[in-house]
Amino acid sequence: MKKYFSELIWYGMGADKMQGFNLIVVFNETADKMLMCKRKKNPYKGLSNFVGGKIEAGEDGFAAAYRELFEETGITKEDISLTHLMDFTYHLDSCYVETYMGRLNKHVEVIGDENTLYWENLDKDFFDPKQYAGEGNIGHIMMHVDMERVKALQEGCHSFLKKKKAEMGADSEEYKTFEPLFIRDFNAGIEKDKQDNDRTVLIESERLLIRKAHISDSDFMSDVESNPDNSPWVANWPLGWRVARFGDDDFLQVIVERKDGIPIGFIIFRDMLKKEECVQLKRIAIIDKGKGYGKEILRMAQKMAFEIWNTKRLYLSTKEANLRAQSIYKATGFVPDMPDPCTCFHMDREDYERIIYNR
Question: Which of 100, 127, 258, 315 could pair with 139 as two cysteines, CB 3.0-4.6 Å apart?
Answer without folding.
Answer: 127
